[in-house]
Amino acid sequence: MPKKDGSFRIGCGRYLQGENFIQKSGCEFLRFSDRVVVIGDTISLNLTKEDIAKSAKDNGVDVKFVLHDGTCNEYDAIIIAEETKNSGYGLVVGVGGGVICDFAKIVAYYAKTPCMNIPTSSATCACFTPLSVRYTRDGETVGSMHFTYEVNEVLVDTVILKNQPIRLLLAGVFDAMAKFVEIKQRFSGKEPIGAFSLGLDYAYMLAKGSYEVLVNNTEQAIEDMKKDSVTPILDQIFFTTICVTGVISGIARGSNQCAIAHKFYETTRTLFPVDCRKMLHGEIVGVGLLLQNMFNGEKQNNTALLRFMKNNGMPYTPELLNITANEQTKKQYASKLIVSSAINDNDESEVERYLACQEDFFNGIVE
Length: 367
Hints:
Layout (H helix, E strand, L loop, with lengths): L14 E4 L6 H5 L5 E6 L1 H17 L3 E6 L6 H13 L4 E6 L1 H14 L3 E5 L11 E5 L5 E6 L6 E5 H5 L3 H22 L12 H25 L7 H20 L8 H12 L9 H15 L6 H10 L15 H12 L9 H15 L5
Parallel strand pairs: 1-8, 2-3, 2-4, 4-5, 5-8
Antiparallel strand pairs: 6-7
Helix pairs in contact: 3-4, 6-7, 6-8, 6-10, 7-8, 9-10, 9-12, 10-13
């Protein structure tokens, strides 16, 4: 299994974004192979299969569609990879949201083929990043699988993304916003340049600009989703949540930019895999952002976040994520967060500060 090797996997081999770009898919497949396995879930294949099949046929590409409605797990990925390899297919394509895109990367790894992703959602940057968040077949988190190379191509059709549910757009926005808020924890008042290891300084600066773009334009993007065509604002939001956020992750070398908000996500998926199954990645991270701001000493920033969440029907408390906020739950979260990379458990004052913030967080005192 590949492990993090310290390299900067900053981009993807090729990134395309534009209206009706799904119709270019067959031509793009040929950059890698004329025999292609396309993996998607029911919703994504219903949305794209006809266009992909036509474009593949027009370009002389033999395409095999594989339906996968399960989790991103290695068990299923290895089975599909063996079939792909034994049948001589030369490219694995993931069509769907974050789960499918992560799953396709694992299939491609075991099949020893290039990987191309066509996202049907902007809820995460998973289509872009060189890692896969793995789960059991039942949905429990088992950790990330890091690859030593980048995704070969990402093809973004902005018309498809314009027609996604607004809930998915918002989840992607909050996941992207988390990058800046979490990196700020790492700096903790230090000057960005030279404060930390190579790369994280630039991730900080890029994340700060990305955060400002999202804060200033998301409300308008929501309104633009209702229009007949893709507006420049929507184009920018999609690019920010997918490409720019993926670049930030690559510059920070993956987990270096993750802190409390994403560790809250991982812990939630571990402790409440069934209760929170229907919650999106960005929705859980968004609630974790409230805790992150508290720990950063910026509780005042939660006022605007809460207003935005409430106005757009997003979850904004642990209870709205279907988490039972009792004393046992608090102990479970504390035991996992404190020993994670988000907290320095050798620093007694930092541990105490986290516990105080967590207590207020679960008691609804977040601003």
